[in-house]
Amino acid sequence: MIVRKLLIPISWVYALGAWLHAAWYRWRIRTPYQPQIATLAVGNLHMGGTGKTPLSLWLMEQLHFKVDPVYYLSRGYGRRTKDVREVQLEDLPQDVGDEALMVRQHFGHSTDVHVVVAQRRADALREMGRHGVVVLDDAFQHRGVQTALNLLVCPFGQWYTEDHVVPAGRLREHPSAAGRAHAVVVTRCPGPVDPLTRLDIRAKLDLRPEQELFCSWERYGDPLPQWDAPAWQAGQTLNALALCGIGQPAVFLAGVRRLVPMAEAMVLADHEPYRPSVVKSIAQKCREQGITSIVTTKKDRARMGAKPREWAGISVYVLPHEIVLDDDGPRLLKWLEREWKARGFRVPLSA
To answer: Could you tell me if 193 and 327 are in contact, meaning their C-beta atoms sit under 8 angstroms apart?
Structure first.
């Protein structure tokens, strides 16, 4: 608590910098690009690990059944290239970013889903024309594009109204920046949310009457075998290593330990590449502790590429999880259709 109080003045400086950056666009010193295609920015005020990517995947899955084409657009965090490029299944994570590659792998060879990375999102949007829909991942703070709709993600119980800007807290901007959101999706709820809890959440987040609220929770499946691993056997209690390099590893680790209560954990930095030294340290840990299985995330799997030879004899699995919106799913789609139509974009989603 004392350390946080000492860091608050630095947080004020960080928040001032974010405010000045936004002011450049509010005062029209810089003019944002206004796309000619329906756009949805999905983002958060927190520093990573909010459940934003599962939400983006759910949106893409719903949209691509009804709209053609559907674009997923991101900067491609961590890539060594800066050009505008469409992600292909054979691309390397260092060339397109691990999250973009994971999305491409999720949809496989589907021709109506396009995954695009661009250092300047406006450059990519200019090439997309007028038809279809674009989901811009992690774009809530991106002021260079004036998106039609902004969807803000907030994890249950981690209310941005009760947090501080970094380094005293985990926020990228002051909580008042949530006012830019047209709707808020609360992720990682304990389960379906009743009406009274919704009212309580609206009060906690200080939402305006016109700001919609949607609630979701996450469901985990059985680990999926990778490379030459045998099928996962339900109820098996083998010794396993829970391996991840993501923003909020605690949620993933809890998911693995529901299946393997005594699983060891190895947590890397978010987006950390699987360099030879990292691969060898993982293999050494497995040998020393007699571990024969690794359970990891989809994003980590995208960064691994081919199975390292040092992991011979180790079975690798990906723990799948999906976002569940229950009745809020159809309501979210109807809201998108209505709000896009109000802004001049006809995107039929309710049929």
So the answer is: no
Same domain, 42 and 186: yes
User: CA 228 to CA 255: how far, in whole Å?
Assistant: 23
CB proximity list for 108: less than 8 A, separation 6 or greater: 89
In a domain, 351, yes or no: no
Query: What type of residue sits at position 328?
Result: D
What pTM value is reported for the model?
A: 0.89
Is the link from the previous residue into 9 a cis peptide, with omega within 30 of 0? Answer: no
Place of tokens 């991106």: 142
> What CATH number has the domain bearing residue 256?
3.40.50
Together in a domain, 11 and 46:
yes
Torsion angles phi and psi, residue 212, rounded to 5: -75, 150
Do residue 76 and residue 50 come from a single domain? Answer: yes
Matching residue, tokens 């923003």:
247
**Cis status, amide bond into 167, omega within 30 of 0:** yes
| Together in a domain, 250 and 119 | no
Q: Are residues 112 and 192 in the same domain?
A: yes
Structure token pair of residue 99: 């999250």
pLDDT digits (tens, 9 = 90+) for 16-73: 665 555 655 565 666 778 999 999 999 999 987 888 989 999 999 999 989 999 999 9
CA distance 247 to 48: 5
Query: Which tens digits make up the pLDDT trace of 267-278?
Result: 999 889 999 999
- Domain limits at 180? 2-218+324-342
Q: How far apart are CA 77 and CA 52, in angstroms?
A: 14
Count up the domains in the chain and report the number: 2
